Amino acid sequence: MVTQLPPTNEIDTEYIVPPFYNNDGTLIQVLCENSSSINSSVGNSVSNFLLNEKGYKNIEVTSNMTTVIESDQPVLVTAFGMGSKSNRYHPYMTVVPGIHQYLDYYKIIVPEGYQENFICVIVQSQSLNNLRINGFSASHYTSVYQAAVTLTKHFSIRIFKIQSGTFVLSTTDASQFGLIVNGHRINDGYGFAGNFVH
Asked: Is the per-residue pLDDT at 7 higher than 70?
């Protein structure tokens, strides 16, 4: 978890937090360096809260809800996949990239030995057809979750179920997008953001 922490000059004010698919829920934690006013949107529900200096707030959402976080000051956002009691998956955590930290190219390694592996892509809706995963369009892969949210732009969220191995993701129009990778097996799980291992 420590290796995922970005420097404070790379934390953001706008975040899209997708759910962890096939988990019992997602626990989002918002942490601030300075006092901050924050809006949290989950579906049609919008809430506002204030954080004091070095404060934090936990937000619990279901496994099929995407959350939008907007702050007047830079904040750090982490997300915990809460595991699955029925499947005996353990919780795991990742740092969530802000939308200004998205990249237009990623090369990642999905580890072997996990029962399920997923990649979540957060891309501007107009560029979804320009997304390439190992040279193939997104429609080549099995999508298990999709949603759309609006910040200053419209974004599409897609979660794809994948096998282990090396993956190269890019957009043909060089538009930047977010990437989160996660997976689980009995008594274990992992998660990481693509730009923290770039």
From this structure: yes
**Residue 82: is it exposed, middle or buried by C-beta count within 10 angstroms (0-12/13-18/19+)?**
buried
pTM listed for this prediction: 0.91
User: At the topology level of CATH, where does 10-95 sit?
Assistant: Hypothetical Protein Tm1070; Chain: A (2.60.290)
How far apart are alpha carbons 60 and 3 in whole angstroms?
Answer: 24
Q: Where are the domains of the chain?
A: 10-95, 101-196
Q: What is the pLDDT of residues 61-79, one digit of tens each?
A: 887 899 999 999 999 999 9
Distance CA 42, CA 95 (A): 19
Find the Cα–Cα–Cα–Cα dihedral 193, 79, 138, 157, rounded to 10°: -130
Q: In this structure, how many other beta carbons lie within 10 angstroms of the beta carbon of residue 183?
A: 25
What the block records as the tokens of 75 is: 């904040």
**Residue 186 one-letter amino acid:** I
